[in-house]
Task: structure prediction
Amino acid sequence: MKALILAGGENKRLPVIKGFLEIKGRRIIELNIELLKGIFDCVIISTNDPGLYFYLGVPMVGDIVKYKGPMTGILSTLVTLEAPDIFVTACDMPFIKPQLVKYIINKWKHSKKNLLTITGYSSPKNGWDAAIPVFDNKPQPLFGIYSKKVIRNMEETIKNGIRSLREFLKKLDVLYISEDEVRTIDPEGRSFVNINTLEDYEKAMKG
Result:
């Protein structure tokens, strides 16, 4: 499995590139690449501005369709790579817990080997399309696994002008990682914190 960092956001509410914001003297995207390289053999950046990220020395994938939103980056990567599935994060998530990433991967692998998941729910006949954690009673679609099996559905969703990943998930067979499971590893849900505004950044710096 490979890891994907989505770095194609519009960045309208910040004066700088979100992934280049610094936490404890390091850019968020640099911290996340280092973290993910400790788990995955390959880390990829989804971006239409590759020149910004050349210095990081990792592979990059550009959008294959004209559409704004995270689905484009996920779709483009799934279509381009030979990997059957990818783990997705965003470039502006500074507090990812590697233990939670590993837990989601282990659940995914277990579900592929067995007819029953760890939680006891029957797996779909053709296996799961995605593995997504739940926090604050909501799926967290920018922190999970997507299979190549979602490509056709994702293409149709994009053609229909739907941008919400949570809406898209409703069309899939999703292995949800329950909030109780998530909280045993990440009680405050810090892994899902993202930086969209200066206020978010200031709050993150204080934390």
